[in-house]
């Protein structure tokens, strides 16, 4: 049971990389084992959309349930002798390597959507982080892309209030609104709760 539409995203973290790369859909593949990494013949495959707000953890749960149903169907087909083994097109293969903590820091010169995908794709580990808000490394757990024009330098806090903390990104017409964060050595909290005790100069 592999949680991607093979041959796309062969490797250890296909769910994360699908979100990190902004894919609109992913799925589950039931494949025959081969000596090469995730390169075996496909027995069954089913796609599913990736929801706009979905994190890697949420998507993992959905694909696990889908994969459980599909493996039962595949075993039944194999027992009945009706399973069809379709070779993968290896020229279309892409890789989904293991995640690392080095992927956590946010590059604010990227678009707001790309940063949002990073937060979703690295949830719950290793998590996205930034020093842009207070100068200290801070984990980002929840956010949304907001349509707002700004000429501010990427990484600049342009608004901070009950709605969240708006940070300029590498495009003029959208910002990333941080909704949930985790300061160093503290628990996760909403941006509003953080601002109540830690006012930020925009």
Describe this structure in words.
The protein has 202 residues and is an alpha+beta fold. It is 24% helix and 26% strand. The protein has helices spanning 14-20, 56-80, 112-121, 191-197; strands at 25-31, 42-49, 128-130, 138-147, 157-161, 164-169, 171-182, 189-190. The strands form two sheets. Strands 3, 4, 5, 6, 7 and 8 form a six-stranded antiparallel β-sheet that branches. Strand 6 (164-169) and strand 7 (171-182) form a beta hairpin. Helix 1 packs antiparallel against helix 3. It is elongated. It starts with 13 loop residues before the first helix and ends in a 5-residue tail after the last helix. The model has no long low-confidence stretch (mean pLDDT 97).
Keywords:
202 residues; alpha+beta; two-stranded antiparallel sheet; 8 strands; 26% strand
User: Over the alpha carbons, how many angstroms does the gyration radius reach?
Assistant: 20 Å
Helix content: 10-25%
Tell me the span between the first and last alpha carbons. 48 Å
Identify low-pLDDT runs: none
Shape: elongated
| Helix and strand sequence | HEEHHEEEEEEH
* Largest sheet properties: 6 strands, antiparallel
Beta-strand portion reads 25-35%
Structural class: alpha+beta
Mean pLDDT: 97
In DSSP terms, counting alpha (H) and pi (I) runs of 4 or more, how many helices? 4
| Beta strands, count | 8
């Amino acid at each position: 049971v592999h949680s991607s539409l093979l041959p796309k995203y062969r490797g250890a973290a296909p769910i994360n990389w699908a979100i990190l790369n902004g894919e609109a859909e992913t799925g589950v593949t039931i494949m025959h084992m081969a000596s090469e990494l995730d390169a075996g013949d496909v027995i069954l495959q089913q796609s599913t959309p990736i929801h706009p707000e979905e994190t890697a953890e949420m998507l993992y749960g959905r694909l696990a349930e889908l994969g459980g149903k599909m493996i039962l169907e595949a075993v039944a087909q194999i027992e009945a002798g009706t399973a069809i083994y379709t070779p993968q097109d290896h020229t279309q293969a892409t890789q989904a390597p293991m995640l690392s903590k080095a992927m956590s820091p946010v590059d604010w010169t990227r678009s707001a959507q790309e940063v949002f995908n990073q937060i979703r794709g690295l949830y719950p580990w290793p998590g996205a982080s930034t020093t842009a808000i207070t100068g200290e490394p801070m984990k980002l757990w929840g956010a949304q892309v907001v349509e707002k024009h700004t000429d501010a330098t990427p990484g600049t806090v342009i608004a901070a209030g009950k709605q969240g903390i708006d940070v300029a990104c590498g495009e003029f017409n959208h910002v990333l609104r941080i909704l949930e964060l985790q300061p160093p050595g503290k628990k996760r909290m909403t941006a509003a709760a953080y601002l109540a005790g830690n006012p930020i100069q925009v």
